[in-house]
Amino acid sequence: MKTITVSDFRKDIKKYAELAETEKIIVNRGSGKAFLVVPIQTVVDEGYSKEFIERILLAEQQIKEGKSTKITSEKELSEFLNDL
After folding, report:
1. What's the rounded Cα separation, in Å, for the pair 10 and 42?
2. What number does CATH give the domain 2-39?
3. What whole-number distance in Å separates Cα of residue 49 and Cα of residue 81?
4. What global pTM score does this model have?
5. Nearest to 30 by CA among 4, 61, 52, 2
6. What family is it from (predicted)?
7. CATH 3.40.1620 residue ranges in the chain?
8. 1 and 26 Cβ atoms separated by less than 8 Å
């Protein structure tokens, strides 16, 4: 793993892009901000879980059936959360 500064990355993007194919490159921006340079082929997007999608679909159905609560103020939100 190699850590470099943003300035170093800007100076030789091609070099670090090629290096990222064989090792992890961390670009440090300072103040605790850093980014990892990796080939796009190595990124796995798992999307949403089946359970999450099912919950969204159920919520949409409940809204269509009128089984929802419309909250229009902070007071209503507070009361709703207190009732949970």
Report:
1. 23
2. 3.40.1620
3. 26
4. 0.51
5. 4
6. Belongs to the phD/YefM antitoxin family.
7. 2-39
8. yes
Any idea which residue has 């090792």 for tokens? 23
Query: Could you read off the pLDDT tens digit of each residue along the chain, which spans 84 residues?
Result: 899 999 999 999 999 999 999 999 999 998 889 999 988 888 888 889 999 999 999 999 999 999 988 899 999 999 989 988
Alpha carbons 28 and 41: distance in angstroms, whole number:
23
State the amino acid at position 41 in one-letter form.
Q
Do residues 7 and 28 lie in contact, with contact meaning Cβ atoms separated by under 8 Å?
no
Pairing label, strands 2-5, 25-30: parallel
Cα–Cα distance between 65 and 69 in angstroms, integer?
A: 12
Contact 3, 26 (CB under 8 A): yes
